[in-house]
Amino acid sequence: MRDVFLYGTLRHAPLLAIVLGETPPGQQAARLSGHAVRAVAGAPYPALVPAPGESAEGILLRDQGPRALGRLCHYEAAFGYAAAPVTVETDAGPKPAQVFLPDVPPETDGPWSLGDWQAAWGRLSEEAAREVMAHHGRLSPGAIGDIFGMIRSRAHSRVLGATPRPRAPIVASADRGSVELLAHRRPYASYFAMEEQDLRFPLFGGGYSEAVTRAALVATDAALVVPYDPRRDEVLLIEQFRPGPYLRGDPRPWCLEPVAGRVDPGEAPETTARREAEEEAGVTLERLETISRSYPSPGCSTEFFYIYLGLADLSRPPAETGGLEEEAEDIRRHVLPLEQVVEWADAGLLDVGPLELSVHWLARHRDRLRTAG
């Protein structure tokens, strides 16, 4: 059976073209009687559920070849979906087809709108699908499913990264379109990923560079926040074991840091900062002030930081330790006089760059914040 009925996110033409590797040549409107398309509870995608008296609207992909069917099966299997036979209604009459369904029907929660999904999730899903399909023939669908959360987070970072932002006026006016991409490879992909490219870029003196190979750790965007009580002139810092210093051979791989967390797919960085302050620091932030939006290490990583100061009431310090058990977090919280932390920064005793940046920024803005607070 080579006809496929699509009822959900693959009705988004750009996403479908990425999955198939081409624009599908033949499709028509179709309906599956006795079923409805419903939103999956807590997720942006829909489910096909039995619904007597209703009809699920979709499209019928006609006469798909082995290559297209293989790519569709690879994409759907990454989410635990497999093909099942159905008979759909078209303007030309009933047609046998196959539809992709999960092994276990998910819990649903009301109607689902393709238009609303396209506005909120379309671009992000296109980016995620590009990585999923790049693994076709290299990773099993199960392995892709295991890391799909990070695939989607990396996709969200690329969407955020494509948004223009103000830059210093002396920075080169050339844009990414002027870089000649010759080859792209992804030699490693798991919780993090490594990507490698052969490229040529415009030179400041004119012309182009020779072809060079550049690689980077592909990480996600992160939101960082230092909770500060202007009335008490105190900050809250967290301390935890860190694998980076440990792998470097640091004899004391525990670090003082701002509160921090990955920006989840579809989430605004400000929302991440507030959520992480409650999860990691046990405090509710009253207001956020932007300290920095920046790359911590642009020579070797895509990681991008949104760093905030979070005004908070620290008169009732949270529990000394905390963190999410499901994320194996073991966090110690410190509420400290700002003056003490500034002295440590001046003495070179803080070894996490974003924290040192935040402390120096806070020292400059302290009087304004205390007056306003």
From TrEMBL:
One of its GO terms (molecular function) is ADP-sugar diphosphatase activity. Gene3D superfamilies: Gamma-glutamyl cyclotransferase-like, Nucleoside Triphosphate Pyrophosphohydrolase. A motif (Nudix box) lies at residues 261-283. This is ADP-ribose pyrophosphatase. It comes from Rhodosalinus halophilus. GO terms for biological process: nucleoside phosphate metabolic process; ribose phosphate metabolic process. Keywords: Hydrolase, Magnesium, Metal-binding. Residues 260-280 are annotated as: Disordered. Acts on ADP-mannose and ADP-glucose as well as ADP-ribose. Prevents glycogen biosynthesis. The reaction catalyzed by this enzyme is a limiting step of the gluconeogenic process. Mg(2+) binds at A260, E276, E280, E329. The keyword Magnesium applies. Its EC number is 3.6.1.13. Its cofactor is Mg(2+). It comes from the Bacteria. InterPro entries: AIG2-like_dom (IPR009288), GGCT-like (IPR013024), GGCT-like_sf (IPR036568), NDP_pyrophosphatase (IPR004385), NUDIX_hydrolase-like_dom_sf (IPR015797), NUDIX_hydrolase_CS (IPR020084), NUDIX_hydrolase_dom (IPR000086). Belongs to the Nudix hydrolase family. NudF subfamily. Residues 218-358 form the Nudix hydrolase domain. The keyword Transmembrane helix does not apply.
